[in-house]
Specification:
The chain is built from 15 helices and 16 strands. The chain has 437 residues and is of the alpha/beta class. It folds into 2 domains: 160 residues, Aspartate Aminotransferase, domain 1; 266 residues, Aspartate Aminotransferase, domain 2 (3-Layer(aba) Sandwich), CATH 3.40.640.10. It binds pyridoxal-5'-phosphate.
C-alpha cells in the first residue's frame, strides 16, 4: 500500500500517457494553474505565450468570459441528454447558427466529439451514400500529405501524413493526387499544379465510377507541415471532381472559424463541398465537439424507413448540451466585425515579421495565410519529433513561447486576442534564437 502511494507521487511521469509524445524519461511536464487570453501561467509563476492556440483550438484565447458564462448557465439546467428521441435548445440553436454560416445546400448536421470522429462520420456517410443507392464504390480520393485524425478511417485517408506506418496493414486503399505545396517566391508552382492535374485526370480516367468521395484539407494541410496550396488550384480541382459527380468533403477541422482569414476556407476558395467537417475552434477551445454537415443530395439517400438505410453511428455524448452552448457562444463572438479586423491586423504583422525572418541564412519557404505564419529551417531533419524539433521547442519554452515545430517547419497560429506587442516580442525572440543557426 505504502509503495503504491509513493509511486503516485510521480503519477504524471508513471501513469499518464501523453498524446503524440515521444517517450523521454527526463522530461517533466509543465504544470499549468491558470490561463487567460494568450497566456498560460505555471505553478512556479512563469508565463507562456500560447502561440499555437493549444493545438489550434482556443481561437478566442483562453477562458473567454462569454463562453464560460454560457457553459455555467447550461450546467445549471441540464447535462448530457441521450440524443435519439430527445432534443434541446443548445443543439437546435447551434444547428441554426451553423447552417447560417455554411454553404446554402449544406443543411443536415451530425454531431460527434472531435475532429477525427467528424471525419470518420463523413467517410461513412459518403460510403453508405453509394451503398444506399445500390452502387457500392471502392476508393476514397485524397491529396498526398493530408491529415484527418487518428481513427482508422481518418488514418487511412491521411496515411501519407507519415504518422501511421505501424498501422499500414490495417488501413484501406486510397487514390492520391500530389499536393502542390507552395511558398513565397516559389517559381515552380505552376509546374507542380499541372502535375497534380495530370495525376487527377489519370485517376479519374481509370476509377471515376469507383470513387466514393474526395476528402481534403482545403488550402492548408496542417499536421503534415502547414503545407499551403493556391486557392485557385483548389477551386479547379474541386470543380473537376464535382463534374464526375463524386462527393467532395472539406475537412475544415483546422481551417474553420477564421484561421485562413475568412470564416471558412470554402469561402476563400469560392466553391462549395458536399460535406464539411468541423471541430477544434468550434467551441472556442472550451469543450470537445465535432460536426459533420451534409448537403441535401447526400442526406436524402438516408431518409427511408428501411433500417438498412439508417446511418449506424452515434456516440454516448452526441450533441452534449454544454459543448453545444459553448459553440453557440463562440459563434456569437463572430458577429462582431472587430474579429475579422483583428485577424487582418495579425496577418499584417505576420507578413512583416515573416519577411524579417526570411532574411536569416537558415530560413526558407516562408508563407502566411490568415492567422497562420510559417517558415522552414534549412539543412535539418524534416521528421516529426526530430531532435532538432524537440530542442527548438524546449528553447522556445525556456523563453516563455509555446511553439511546436513540425520537423523543420516552424509555425505560429495564435488566438485572435493576442496583443500585437506580444506577437512582436515572440518574433523578436524567434529571430534572436535563429540568427546564429
Ligand atoms: C486536428 C485535425 C483532425 C483531428 O481532430 P481531433 O480532434 O484531434 O481528433 C482532423 N482533421 C484536421 C484537418 C485536423 O487538423
Amino acid at each position: 500500500m505504502k509503495k503504491r502511494k509513493n509511486n503516485l507521487k510521480n503519477v504524471d511521469k508513471k501513469a499518464i500517457w501523453r498524446p503524440f509524445t515521444i517517450y523521454d524519461s527526463s522530461i517533466r511536464p509543465i504544470h499549468i494553474v491558470r490561463a487567460k487570453n494568450e497566456t498560460l501561467f505555471d505553478n512556479k509563476g512563469k508565463e507562456y505565450l500560447d502561440l499555437i492556440s493549444s493545438w489550434w483550438v482556443n481561437i478566442h484565447g483562453h477562458v473567454n468570459l462569454s463562453i464560460t458564462k454560457a457553459i455555467k448557465k447550461q450546467l445549471d439546467q441540464f447535462d448530457q441528454i441521450l440524443f435519439t428521441d430527445f432534443s434541446h435548445k443548445p443543439a437546435s440553436d447551434l444547428a441554426k447558427k451553423i447552417i447560417q454560416v455554411m454553404p446554402r445546400d449544406l443543411c443536415r448536421i451530425f454531431f460527434s466529439d472531435n475532429g477525427s470522429t467528424a471525419v470518420e462520420v463523413s467517410l461513412k456517410i459518403a460510403w453508405q451514400y453509394w451503398v444506399n443507392l445500390g452502387k457500392k464504390r471502392k476508393y476514397f480520393l485524397t491529396f498526398t500529405g493530408g491529415y484527418h485524425g487518428d481513427t482508422f478511417g481518418s488514418m487511412s485517408v491521411g496515411h501519407s501524413s507519415g504518422f501511421f506506418d505501424s498501422f499500414k496493414d490495417l488501413l484501406f486503399q486510397v487514390k492520391e493526387v500530389p499536393f502542390p505545396h507552395t511558398w513565397d517566391r516559389d517559381s515552380l508552382v505552376n509546374k507542380k499544379e499541372k502535375e497534380s492535374f495530370k495525376r487527377l485526370e489519370h485517376i479519374l480516367r481509370n476509377n471515376s465510377s469507383n470513387i466514393a468521395a474526395f476528402i481534403c484539407e482545403p488550402i492548408v494541410q496542417g499536421s503534415s507541415g502547414m503545407r499551403v496550396c493556391r486557392p485557385s488550384f483548389m477551386k479547379k480541382i474541386v470543380q473537376r471532381i464535382k463534374k464526375e459527380n463524386i462527393p467532395v468533403i472539406f475537412d475544415e477541422v483546422m481551417t474553420g472559424f477564421g484561421r485562413t482569414g475568412q470564416m471558412f476556407a470554402y469561402q476563400k476558395i469560392g466553391i462549395n463541398p458536399d460535406i464539411i467537417c468541423l471541430s477544434k475552434g468550434l467551441t472556442g477551445g472550451a469543450l470537445p465537439l465535432g460536426l459533420t454537415i451534409c448537403s441535401n443530395r447526400i442526406s436524402k439517400v438516408f431518409e427511408s424507413d428501411d433500417p438498412k438505410k439508417m446511418l449506424p453511428h452515434g456516440h454516448s455524448y452526441t450533441a452534449n448540451p454544454i459543448s453545444c452552448s459553448a459553440a453557440v457562444a463562440s459563434l456569437d463572438l463572430f458577429k462582431s466585425k472587430q474579429i475579422f479586423k483583428k485577424i487582418k491586423m495579425i496577418e499584417n504583422i505576420h507578413r512583416k515579421r515573416i519577411n524579417d525572418l526570411s532574411n536569416l541564412e537558415c530560413v526558407e519557404r516562408t508563407r502566411v495565410i490568415g492567422l497562420i505564419a510559417v517558415f522552414e529551417v534549412k539543412g535539418v531533419s524534416k521528421n516529426y519529433g526530430s531532435e532538432f524539433a524537440r530542442n527548438l521547442k524546449h528553447k522556445f519554452l525556456r523563453r516563455g513561447l509555446i511553439i511546436r515545430p513540425l520537423g523543420n517547419v516552424v509555425y505560429l497560429m495564435p488566438p485572435y486576442c493576442i496583443k500585437p506587442k506580444n506577437l512582436h516580442r515572440s518574433y523578436d525572440i524567434i529571430i534572436a534564437l535563429l540568427s546564429n543557426c
